[in-house]
Fold:
Amino acid sequence: MATGRTHRPATRSRGIPEATVARLPLYLRALTALSERSVPTVSSEELATAAGVNSAKLRKDFSYLGSYGTRGVGYDVEYLVYQISRELGLTQDWPVAIVGIGNLGAALANYGGFASRGFRVAALIDADPAMAGTPVAGIAVQHTDDLDRIISDNGVSIGVITTPPGAAQQVCDRLVAAGVTSILNFAPTVLSVPEGVDVRKVDLSIELQILAFHEQRKAGEDAAAEDEGAPPMRATPAGRKGPDGDMPAVMPA
Amino acid sequence: MATGRTHRPATRSRGIPEATVARLPLYLRALTALSERSVPTVSSEELATAAGVNSAKLRKDFSYLGSYGTRGVGYDVEYLVYQISRELGLTQDWPVAIVGIGNLGAALANYGGFASRGFRVAALIDADPAMAGTPVAGIAVQHTDDLDRIISDNGVSIGVITTPPGAAQQVCDRLVAAGVTSILNFAPTVLSVPEGVDVRKVDLSIELQILAFHEQRKAGEDAAAEDEGAPPMRATPAGRKGPDGDMPAVMPA
DNA sequence: ATGCCTTTGTGAACGCGTGCACAAAGATAG
DNA sequence: CTATCTTTGTGCACGCGTTCACAAAGGCAT
Ligand SMILES: NC(=O)c1ccc[n+]([C@@H]2O[C@H](COP(=O)([O-])OP(=O)(O)OC[C@H]3O[C@@H](n4cnc5c(N)ncnc54)[C@H](O)[C@@H]3O)[C@@H](O)[C@H]2O)c1
Ligand SMILES: NC(=O)c1ccc[n+]([C@@H]2O[C@H](COP(=O)([O-])OP(=O)(O)OC[C@H]3O[C@@H](n4cnc5c(N)ncnc54)[C@H](O)[C@@H]3O)[C@@H](O)[C@H]2O)c1
Structure:
């Protein structure tokens, strides 16, 4: 199982493009804010601005859900909130289990924004025997030995992994074996899962590296011109020491 | 500034596609692991598997950086580590400031994975006067009043926002005014920034909602057929109470 | 009732990203 | 030195996502 198969042109998401799905939560958040201010209707232009996207994109996105707008007026806020919530599956309760209750796991457990949208922290699981029974965010931490039972008993289908990278794959396997079919992975590891299981990853380090890339480009633009040749040690934003001890002696070709 | 302008076909990233940039950290991680095991060379096939991508994609990605491989052999691990590090700007030191030292901010501050790749937590900033001076992860928390000076003194160009959503835009504005040009935002807010400033967001809630969408689809597939019409309350994975108090009375059209 | 004015919904064009498939490159063996 | 074999680098085609631009729809004023 989960050998090398990366093929996945299988079940397309019933017409709704993945990119659209990823934006629906954004729209929902903006709509919820409008709803709380008792705004009755909103135009695609206004809502798009609030969500930080293009209005044409927003309209096309909504067109996949159906024709919920009124021409000349806009969209009914409450109705749209309901439609998107339903489409995303937020009208039901999603029990979530967090595995690895360290710095990050505890922060997530304490995070109030979870429950706000139908997600409920149903269980906290850790391998450290000393933590078993300790309450974190009002929930007693349970031991990994009981993982299987905990998942089953609570009907958990979404698991969050916040263990060290070395343990992530093993924890993932156990979660999947116990019935979890969606995983949010915070460990910097590539997880292998059988077909039918969704994995999304949140990787702080990658985000920072992408920012660093663009940051470097911006710095290099100022003192443009000379590209290759000179060691990149001029427009360093920090002005600390340059590259050191990283330069390999090996040079192929 | 930063009014409605979302146009940005301006400076393309010197040939390297954004999608490729986003994968470079992934390759780098896999390569570092190989390097630690003293593996001298690696083929595109092996490395692609380790990084969880397609081998053709990997080769094409590398082709944007130059021809660093040797046909018939593969890539020199050490050399490739250096080339990617250099391309990502990781051969220099990036001082990072974290603003909002609560649950999440503290977890990030304590996270060791930061420094591993040239990122250094240079400052922790919070608005709570009671926190000023308190050491978190060995670094004294400083007050927001001094934000401008802290950013300047440390040459910080990358800021991390972990404040409550309401404060995020204001904090962002202050960071930008102080000279920050890259922001990693954990608050569930759409940030407006002037041109030239990069923003990346990490949004746990959105990730969970995307997972919920697919989860719902999977559950609906089992008991397929009847689409619209009946209330969606059958194949609930949790079996808890159904939608409640969310159903709006308004129905346009 | 009629015409105007706003805004949606979408057809169509375009550009980016992905993956296939293969020729060229180079290492290695004989 | 030549042949063979492995693996890169990339041309090409395809599909997805984005954006433009506009006709159709519907509210609203008169
Ligand atoms: N802390 C951060 O800000 C941060 C940021 C980005 C990524 N991460 C990643 O998140 C993960 C957790 O980070 P952290 O700082 O919370 O680490 P941590 O060491 O504080 O916590 C890890 C927890 O996982 C538990 N654990 C270890 N093996 C386990 C297993 N097999 N089953 C169940 N639990 C197990 C440990 O007992 C510990 O409580 C790491 O992979 C880290 O790379 C953390
Ligand atoms: N904790 C999580 O797991 C988690 C997950 C996803 C998103 N988030 C988001 O991350 C942010 C922080 O979450 P948290 O759980 O750490 O919240 P928290 O309340 O624990 O911490 C927020 C911190 O920000 C400080 N702060 C408030 N206003 C400030 C300002 N103007 N300038 C500087 N500092 C200020 C507060 O003093 C507090 O220390 C929130 O926006 C939250 O929605 C958190």
Notes: Residues 17-20, 54, 56-57, 60, 70-73 of chain A lie near DNA strand D (CB under 10 Å from a C1'). The longest strand of chain A covers residues 119-126.
